[in-house]
Known about the structure:
This protein has a domain at 2-69 and 102-113: hypothetical protein PF0899 fold (2-Layer Sandwich). Helices cover 26% and strands 26% of the residues. The chain is of the alpha+beta class. The site of zinc ion has 8 residues, from loops. This is Hydrogenase expression/formation protein HypA. Pfam families: HypA (PF01155). Keywords: Metal-binding, Nickel, Zinc. InterPro entries: HypA/HybF (IPR000688).
Amino acid sequence: MYELSVAQELYTVARARADEMEVRELESVRVAVGELAGVTPDLLRSAWRFVTAESADENSRLDIDLRSGRQICPQCGALPGPDVIAYPAHCERCKCHMRVESGDRVELLEIRFQQELALA
Length: 120
Ligand SMILES: [Zn+2]
């Protein structure tokens, strides 16, 4: 499952940042997921729970912002029609391989840490 390695990578980065700042617990991590990134949001959220299980961060949340994808044919410049449900691999007009212009990445946007309670 691809989502598992994505979640593992995100968690490694977030935890390293928390360690750097000497924070015990992550509160949430926000990521942007492109529609063409090959990542299913629900599976990514499950994967996040799996990789943080039984760690200090097991209650942390993964927030996902979906970003739309954009494709264009490098040959004739055609865009997928508005009635296209899935992103086509090939141009309808010239059968050329479609080029992905955006929405094919997972981006880490924000890491929030649990606020430590100051002891009086
Ligand atoms: Zn084309």
